[in-house]
Design a protein that fits this description.
The chain is of the alpha/beta class and 187 residues long. Helices cover 29% and strands 21% of the residues. The radius of gyration is 15 Å and the shape is globular. The C terminus is likely disordered.
Length: 187
């Protein structure tokens, strides 16, 4: 039986050639059922609008795995307490620091979720992300008490940082042990 994967993009979306777009295609080829919605007003999002949209999507789609990038991580922190769900896996990629981003000011400040609603959780962070330093990422990972993948010089882990495919995300969804590792960035 195929697993249901919900992919949530950050500010401005994750259109091709973003790794989330590649991930959706690769998962479909492996017979996963994928929901990769375009969230409303993606260039100037409102937290409540995104929360309501994603809650409805979760209720309808019933994902077993959720993959978040950037602002979607913050969205997840905001909606966790409202969800009656138990995921198998949750991937948090390139979260942003807890400082107001003008384009998404309703998302800040954000809570540190006590229950991420998943059995297995991993966070991926870069050593040179302009939106969260590696020290800030390690601090967040410690507060969340989850595993972390540290990517060397991967920027914000998006196309402008040289990322199309992110094979480690695909591999983790298929089979992951959740341990923290440090690996060179994939290009």
């Amino acid at each position: 039986m195929s697993k249901r994967v919900l992919i949530l993009h950050g500010l401005s979306g994750s259109d091709f050639p973003h790794w989330q777009n590649h991930l959706a295609q690769d998962l479909i080829k492996e017979n996963y059922t994928v929901s990769f919605p375009s969230l409303p007003n993606k260039n100037s999002p409102d937290l409540n609008e995104w929360k309501e949209f994603v809650k409805k999507e979760i209720e309808y789609f019933k994902p077993e795995i959720v993959v978040c990038h950037s602002l979607a991580n913050i969205l997840w922190f905001h909606i966790c307490d409202d969800l009656d769900i138990s995921l198998e896996k949750l991937m948090l990629v390139a979260p942003v620091r807890n400082e107001v981003l003008e384009e998404a000011k309703t998302f800040f400040p954000y809570p540190i979720a006590k229950d991420l609603k998943s059995i297995e959780v991993i966070m991926a962070a870069s050593t040179n992300d302009p939106y969260m330093s590696i020290e800030e990422a390690i601090n967040l990972q410690s507060k969340l008490n989850i595993g972390m993948k540290i990517m060397e010089n991967a920027g914000h882990i998006n196309p402008s940082a040289g990322f199309g495919k992110l094979d480690c995300a695909f591999d983790w969804i298929k089979a992951c042990n959740g341990t923290a590792t440090s690996v060179p960035a994939e290009k």
